[in-house]
Amino acid sequence: MADEPVDAKGPEKDSDNKEDIKPKSKESTRPESKASSSSKTDEEKKTAPRVKSAKSKKDGKKTGGKGNTKSKPAEPKEESTEKDGGGQDSMIPLFISSKSQEIFQCVADEHVTEDNPHKLIPKDAIIQDMRERAAVSDFHPVKQLILDYPGDEILLIYDADFKYGQNFVLVSSDEEKQRILNPVVEQAEDGSPTGEEGEAVEEIDPVVYQYVPPEPKEWVSLGSEKEIEEASWKETEQKIRITIRRARREFGGALSFSDRNADDAKDGYIECVPFEDKSFSLKIMELDKDVQAVSTYTDQGSQTVWKHPCNKYTQYAPRELTEAEQKNLLSSETLYNFLDRVTPRFELALQQNDIMDVFRDDWKELGNEDDTFGSKSDNHLKEYQSFTDLQFSRDKVLTCIAWHPSIKGIIAVSCAEKMTYDERVDNSSRIIMTQSLILIWSFSDPIHPQILLEAPEDIVCFKFNPTDPNIIAGGCINGQIVLWDISKYVDRLKNTQRGKQSKKNAMLNVPGFEDDSSDKTPVVRYCASAAIESGHRNAVADIQWLPDHMEVNRFGLMVENRNLQSCQLLTASVDGTIGIWDTRPSKSQSQTADDGKEDNPLGVATTFKHLDLTWKPIIKIHMSRLEGSGDYGPVRVSFQERQGDRHLLEKMQKEGSAGKSSIDRKDSNMGGGFGIRSGSAKEKRQLEGATTKFFVGTEDGELIYADLKLEKDPDSGKLVPPRADFVKSFHDRAINTLQRSPFFKDIVLVVGGWNFSIWKEGRESNPLLISAAASKQFTCGFWSPTRPAVFYLGTAEGNIEVWDLLDRTHEASLSQNISASEITNVYPWHLSHKQQLLAVSDNVGTLHILEVPWTLRNLTHGELTSVTSYFDREDKRLEYQEQRESVHQENKRRLDAEEAAKKIAQPPEPSTEEVDNKMRTLWLEYLEDEKKFLLDLGLVEEKEEPLPDV
Amino acid sequence: MSSEVEDALKRIQHMKDVHGTIIINAEGTPVKTTLDDSTTLQYAALIHQLTATAKGTIREMDPQNDLTFLRIRSKKHEIMVSPEKGFMLIVVQNITEEK
User: Fold this and answer.
1) Residue spans with biased composition (Basic residues) (chain A) (predicted)?
2) What is the Cα gyration radius of chain B?
3) In this predicted model, which residue has the larger pLDDT, B58 or A108?
4) Distance separating alpha carbons of residues A17 and A175, to the nearest angstrom
């Protein structure tokens, strides 16, 4: 065994090992063996050759077995396919010359053919032949093999195709011969050989198998590469390539499309019948399945039983002492002693706290040192942008400015002709021909205004509606009140916010899509104006939207406004009247408001159609003079209620029954349906806590405090506006600013003429502060929106003055020249906590936008409390002053009375005797005193009187 | 005697920014108060506990020492407590932020 190569599968001891006669021949035939060989030959291949001794024994057995094969005559007719597969160790290719063929009667294509290739030749004949022809014999190379051949006949197979390399194949094993000749019968034979083999196995048994590690062998193809090749995918079909062409002239030809009936034309209708797609009806022929053994596992859980749950808690009542006990304790000595010991500690601690706040952070305050005025840090107003329109605003007076309440970087400004009344009259024809406009500017385009609002006459004042910024109300120089609705154009304002330039350019570059109108500034015509007969008769000097949480009814009372939409206007005109206007339609009008579509050539918004030319104020108050006849000319009005201040409304909500409807906050972008939903004023509750009193500034510089609430005239029984509470004249020219501090409801800044004053509502005698007359006129003023102590003033010289009440009150903290001509308006706007802008307009048509420095917009440490205490201090001073005044008056009255009384009753002249007596007593008193004094000093000794003799 | 107690309390109560004074006994039951009932109970119960802890801390460090006065500074108030035998006086002072 050791000298023979052993296959790894050697241990297989099957009957097949009988064939392994010649290891040599096996070696030679192996490369030629086919992969498609039968299973039996496969096994043979694998079997290891046996030990020589076993082989000889086997051979003996073989000879025994030979009888079997012999007994069955070989059938020459065999399946060629079977034979083809028979290439084996025992198959030896052999060249047989034509002479030999003749001798053995196996001439190719004569005795043997491709279909019948078998030829049995007797062994003896071959041996005979070999003897006769010796080395010439064709069987000479296999002489030994033939000699060893156990059977009598040797099978020759004609190999017409030279599969084995020669024209014939010699089958050297008897077993193989049998298999080739009668394969079917062979299977039936299986029984008998196995029996014999069983014996053979028994004999082989004693051989001890020894494991020899397998040696690496050359790779032999068994056909796996073919399988891989078959399994791999290859592109077999050639790709289709299609080119479609169309004549160039057919492109871009004139086409005309029209509708037509599909039935009219022959090819107008192509039906797509539903059909079954065969690619979706394939049957599954093959199924991939796999099975994996997984160790068994179980899911289990355990839970404690949830027993009867119930919400319960236990709490003891706090221990309290009974009254008797309390009394007892309170009067006990121990408690008294305790307090006696303890109180000094508390007094000490409380005093400490009073004297000094140990927890004060001094570092925090240090930081602000640098921010006050006068330091080197940047504290000047910086020019941010300026707007002037060559066509519309140049050399005109900018009468009013307003920031857009919601869109950042949008500011509107109204222009008017720079003329006095007389000039206006002279040039009236020219004025009529020129447009009166409000320009709406965007920061993104400093050259062209975004929207132009057209007015019937020059606008003196205008305001954006705080709840719907698309609505703008304006007052004209001729007394008209007009309204605009810019909701159609609001996109234009929004678009300009960012990246407008690029967008516009991109749009314009597309050929065929140039839009000339996109570049043109739209002119918006006013959509309503007040009825001429019921409007003001002189310039409307001030216009304001009432805050959205309140409205004023016909009786001058303030009632709540649950819609939270500003819909009432307050106007003040130089004709001596103050009007309150409601933009909502009255009941009778609301039905007819929407009748019919009239032609609207100017594209006027119909928002306020119901008001146009019929609009009347709901209240009109004549500011009649307290003394003498005539009216005051109100130019500024100021109410206490302020936009966005909801605390009164909320208080009412709380107090009011919970069932009442809550505030339904309407979308502020209501556009067309403006205010129509608001109900009548009847059910509305009065706004408690809101005062109907208001300040009025007049043309002549008077400050009036009046009440809106109408009173019954005792004579006529009619409702008439009450007379003003007081009128003060501290200003020498028309009041141009009357504004409440954004931090204090009751503090009012009044600017007019050459000075300004600060008033506190309720302190009517004097202003808290009045400035000395300045060298130039103040033309406008405005509180800083973020600093309670700061306000801005504009002067006739073109300066902006910044006053900081905490810095100094006798002069401006900062004065800066902005324009060469008069400043007409100043309007700071808090854009973000990083930026605050100050809009300043002048009377030559330029709108300056200045950036407010950090120091002017940031609240300094403790500013609010300081300002509050400053105002309180001033208030107390005034109160004291008033008291003193009244005391003085009282005193004066009394002194006057006394004097008068004295004059009436002069006392009589005393006689000389009485005078002498008086003098004498005085002299004696003096002497007495002198004596006493000298005695006390010890300068004079009292004469001791000697004791009287006994 | 009762009026003298009242007087002593009144004196403290009228000092600047004093929000309220409470006297509680050793069990933490309020004896006399100038605050409303619920606030008093809350102060009494909580401050009593806190003071007991503070007292324990002091005693732990030095058995011969004792807590005499406790000041608690908060954002809104300063609470001052002084325990003595049998009673405890609590004074709550508002803090005035100087701005």
Assistant:
1) 48-64
2) 14
3) B58
4) 11
Check residue B82 and give its pLDDT. 93
Instruction: List B residues 31-90 in contact with A (Cβ-Cβ < 8 A).
Output: 31-32, 41, 45, 68-69, 71, 73, 78, 80, 82, 84-87, 89
Chain A segment 356-375 residues within 8 A of B by beta carbon are: 357, 359-360
| Contact at CB, A346 and B82, closer than 8 angstroms | yes
Q: Residues for chain B: how many in total?
A: 99
**Given this model, what pLDDT does residue A948 score?**
65
Distance of CA A450 to the CA centre of its chain: 28
Q: Look at residues A131, A136, A158, A165 and name the one whose alpha carbon lies nearest to residue A146.
A: A131
Check B31 against A329: CB less than 8 A apart: yes
Query: Best interface-test mutation with B: which of A328, A329, A364, A869 has the largest number of B CBs within 10 A?
Result: A329
Res B21: pLDDT:
92
- For chains A and B, CB pairs below 8 A equal 99
How far is residue A936's CA from residue A875's CA, in Å, rounded to a whole number?
55
Residue A579, SS3? strand
Measure CB to CB from residue A342 to each of B1, B4, B89 and give the nearest one: B89
Q: Is A519 exposed, middle or buried (0-12, 13-18, 19+ CB in 10 A)?
A: exposed
Model pLDDT for residues A541-570, shown as the tens digit of each residue:
899 998 888 888 877 788 877 777 888 888
Q: Does B8 touch chain A (CB under 8 A)?
A: yes
Pairwise CA distance, residues A223 & A35, whole Å:
7
Name the minimum distance, in Å, from the CA of B45 to any CA of chain A.
Answer: 9
CB contact under 8 Å between A336 and B5, yes or no, is: yes
Task: Please name the residue that has the structure tokens 């809350």.
Answer: B42
Secondary structure class of A441 (helix, strand, coil) = strand
How close A326 gets to chain B, by Cα (Å)? 6
pLDDT value of residue A68: 43
Tokens (6 digits) for A517: 């109108």
Distance from CA of residue A850 to its chain's centroid?
Answer: 31
Cα angle A735-A740-A746, degrees, rounded to a multiple of 5: 115
- As a whole number of angstroms, the distance between CA A839 and CA A1 comes to 116
Asked whether A552 and A708 are in contact (CB, 8 A), the reply is yes
Q: Could A330 and B32 be called an inter-chain contact, meaning their C-beta atoms sit closer than 8 Å?
A: yes
> Which pLDDT score is estimated for A98?
79
Local structure of A828: helix, strand or coil? strand
* Beta strand B70-73 pairing with A550-552: unpaired
Which residue, A474, A451, A452, A471, is CA-closest to A461? A474
DSSP H stretches of helix in A182-223: 183-189, 191-204
- The CA R_g of chain A, rounded to the nearest whole Å, is 63
Q: Judge: A331–B12 Cβ closer than 8 Å, yes or no.
A: no
What secondary structure, in 3-state letters, does B28-85 show?
CCEEEECCCHHHHHHHHHHHHHHHHHHHHHHHHHCCCCCCCCEEEECCCEEEEEEEEC
Measure CB to CB from residue B80 to each of A318, A319, A349 and give the nearest one.
A349
Report the C-alpha gap between A462 and A805 in whole angstroms. 30
Q: What are the structural domain ranges in chain A?
A: 1-90+178-206, 97-172, 407-498+518-691+703-719
Distance in angstroms (rounded) separating the CA atoms of residues A783 and A791: 4
**ipTM for the complex shown:** 0.86
- CB-count burial class (<10 Å; 0-12, 13-18, 19+) for A208: exposed
Q: Which of the residues in chain A have pLDDT under 70?
A: 1-89, 183-206, 364-378, 496-519, 586-607, 655-684, 906-908, 942-950
CA distance B31 to B24: 5
What is the DSSP pairing of strand B18-25 with strand A847-851?
unpaired
From CA A41, how far away is CA A19, in angstroms rounded? 10
Rounded to whole angstroms, how far apart are CA atoms A495 and A518? 12
